[in-house]
């Protein structure tokens, strides 16, 4: 019955899109089949069943109407609604997600494409940890989580208006320790999609601009400053969340038209570290606020897709204070610039970041910044 309803939903969506569609507006329906796995020895529940699910993705294919389309390889923007069974109905339940995504082609020739897709959105887990009713689930502690999806696949154009898309997909659900427990769910799967393209972009539709006529960037080196805030728990079920304050400054050098290398310094104030030292008897002679502080020197790579950007950052601590888990850190960030930073010398932006040590997430943060 569930598959019947899913099929009816897909057919209805295809019908609506077919009635009136601008060039490059597509819709893809797909099915997942895979299996969640226990990626940490401390996970206390089993995931005995196979995971299955479905996804409906609305996407827009760019073809050169804006200056950055060609510069970024004519990417596709998408918004997906997804369902996935976790593999344990009693203690984990089901996953439902809303997933903004971007797709880029690695190879394109006639009827075949090889592509990669990154999606980052919100995922609802129906049966998180609960001290009384679900105490064995130490993978996810909250209903609302981040859902990150990576997809590598092939698109085969079997008809003018239809693509068949087999792919390998990896889905991750977690809340980055904002609510414990938080070991996260990892589900690799095979995904098979059928994309309906009522008004497809053809090779002759691409708008390509000669190098001499392309708009010039405003500056090659651009600085940015960021301030963000997050929360984390120290023990499962405590409902006591400690604030985390983060700030950073950096300089970014364009090394290609849509990629720049950054170097900077950041400061973190970890509220849970301050609470620990304040209530522990061994730190009376120390500055407790300093013990809760971390200073990091970092390098980062920023990939820019229009006003959106994805950053991967590697940092090295110059402090070694209480609760600091390792000598280095990893930070993944997404930014939305209110004006195109390629064309404007200064622009504000909003950012969402996740900081981790090794493979263990420490916190999510949301913040504001400015590039100048």
UniProtKB/TrEMBL annotation:
Keywords: Hydrolase. The keyword Magnesium does not apply. One of its GO terms (molecular function) is hydrolase activity. Gene3D superfamilies: 2.40.160.20. It comes from the Bacteria. InterPro entries: Lipid-A_deacylase-rel, OMP/PagP_B-barrel. Pfam families: PagL. This is Acyloxyacyl hydrolase. It comes from Aureispira anguillae.
């Amino acid at each position: 019955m569930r598959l019947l309803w899913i099929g009816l939903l897909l057919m209805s969506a295809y019908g609506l899109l077919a009635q009136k569609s601008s060039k490059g507006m597509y819709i893809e329906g797909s099915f997942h089949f895979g299996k969640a796995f226990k990626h940490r020895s401390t996970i206390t529940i089993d995931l005995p069943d196979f995971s299955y699910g479905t996804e409906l993705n609305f996407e827009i294919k760019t073809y050169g109407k804006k200056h950055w389309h060609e510069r970024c390889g004519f990417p596709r923007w998408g918004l997906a609604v997804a369902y996935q069974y976790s593999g344990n109905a009693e203690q984990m339940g089901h996953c439902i997600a809303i997933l903004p995504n971007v797709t880029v082609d690695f190879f394109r020739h006639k009827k075949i494409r090889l592509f990669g897709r990154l999606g980052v959105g919100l995922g609802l887990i129906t049966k998180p940890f609960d001290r009384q009713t679900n105490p064995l689930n130490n993978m996810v502690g909250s209903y609302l989580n981040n859902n990150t999806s990576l997809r590598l696949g092939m698109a085969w154009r079997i008809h003018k208006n239809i693509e068949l898309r087999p792919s390998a997909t990896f889905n991750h659900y977690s809340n980055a320790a904002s609510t414990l427990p938080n070991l996260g769910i990892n589900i690799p799967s095979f995904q098979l999609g059928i994309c309906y393209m009522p008004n497809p972009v053809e090779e002759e539709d691409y708008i390509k601009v000669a190098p001499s006529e392309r708009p010039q960037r405003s500056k090659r080196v651009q600085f940015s400053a960021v301030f963000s805030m997050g929360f984390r728990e120290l023990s499962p079920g405590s409902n006591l969340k400690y604030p985390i304050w983060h700030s950073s400054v950096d300089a970014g050098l364009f090394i290609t038209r849509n990629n720049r290398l950054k170097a900077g310094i950041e400061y973190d104030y970890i509220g849970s570290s301050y609470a620990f030292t304040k209530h522990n008897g061994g730190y009376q002679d120390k500055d407790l606020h300093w013990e809760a502080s971390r200073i990091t020197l970092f390098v980062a790579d920023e990939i820019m897709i229009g006003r959106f950007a994805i950053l991967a950052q590697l940092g090295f601590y110059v402090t070694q204070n209480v609760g600091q888990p390792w000598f280095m850190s990893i930070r993944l960030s997404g930014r939305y610039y209110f004006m195109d930073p390629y064309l404007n010398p200064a622009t504000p932006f909003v950012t969402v970041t996740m900081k981790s040590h090794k493979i263990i997430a420490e916190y999510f943060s949301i913040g504001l910044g400015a590039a100048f």
